[in-house]
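User: Second chain of the day. Same drill as before.
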Amino acid sequence: MESRISHRGAIGLALAGFTFWVLTDTSMKLAGNSRLPGYEIVACLGLALAVALVVRGFSQGRPRGLLPKSPSRQLVRSGLDLGNNLCVVVALRHLPLTLFYILVFLAPMVTALLSAVFLREHLSWRKVLAVVGGFAGVVVAVNPFSSARQGDWIGYAACMVCVLCFSVNMVWSRVLMRTETPESLTLFSGVVQVVVGAVLMMAWHAEPVTPRLAATLTAMGLFCACGSMCFFVALKNTSPVHVSQCHYTQLITGALLTWLIWRETPTVWMMAGSVLIVAAGWLMAAAMSRESAEVSPEVFAGPG
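Assistant: Same format as last time:
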């Protein structure tokens, strides 16, 4: 039997989970400085997730919870997850970590719009205001008319694909969660990433994996696995709305690590945009909390 954790303890685990995911993204960005293909990096990530989930499932005596109920439907979701993670690797090669988080925080806003269209969910005035505020925050943060803009258009385009894949993934996951467990969804996605990455590696492997690069990839996988475990336990012990609000701490930890490792500081425009995005996110969370006392948990299968 799994012991019950207090609300405060669950929030602590959520904060730890999102911090581990920032460390995952940081390790991925460091690995991205090599010539290693994105699919090889993603395969290492998927392997760590798959191993961690299998070990957890067997240690809890619930290995059947890892099995998919509908493999064909999960395959669609896993394809979206694979596209998202590959674009994360590309984006992190072209953008500062802080700006990457600012851009991908568009995902909750896009998810709300897609949910209104495809799931017929009510789009209240609070959600509309949150969506507008979130998009405005991204425009302010990017400051497209400035000549001193950080990052390049490859990074911006990769982030937009990330947001689209992630948002469609979340909407589809809400449908799958009626019959599938979060662990099953994440494990299936991890296995698909390993298989696709392994097949592509047989066709093209850019360079030998040095001990330093191997250590970076191992750290990336361990951080991601730890983040996923903390996230799942937190979701089981408190409301998903409370867990999702901890997501925005990644802006702080991401900015801190960016400064410590790359000595890059966010611009005034990035900080102003971050304030708008966080405010929009909290307004979105408040709207969701008002609509339902129990919100279906979002499924995270990787960093970002």
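The radius of gyration is 19 Å.

User: Great, on to the next one.
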